[in-house]
Design brief:
By secondary structure, the protein is an alpha+beta fold. It has helices spanning 16-22, 48-51, 63-79; strands at 30-35, 38-43. It has a two-stranded antiparallel ribbon with strand order 1-2. It comes from Rugosibacter aromaticivorans.
């Protein structure tokens, strides 16, 4: 088992072996999960793909309805 000390600010250094194994680079974010009395640290996904599913739609909208709305907004901007 690899270990690391916790600083007075609550910071922990992820051992190099684990950073390399999981592709964790400077500036990356990690997540913490409690599971069955254990603390699990894991890479935290970033980017657009990571945000997928965060927002919940109140109702679905068809692509044609979206296209019509975009056309109307562009028309309004052009006339303004």
């Amino acid at each position: 088992m690899l270990s690391s000390a916790v600083t007075t600010k609550g910071q922990v250094t992820v051992p190099a072996e684990m950073r390399e194994k999981f592709g964790i680079k400077p500036g990356d974010r990690v997540g913490f999960v409690e599971e069955n009395g254990r603390l699990i640290i894991q890479p935290h996904p970033q980017g657009v793909a990571a945000a997928f599913g965060i927002l919940k739609a109140r109702k679905s909208v068809s692509l044609s309805a979206m296209d019509e709305t975009i056309k109307a907004k562009r028309k309004n901007r052009a006339g303004a």
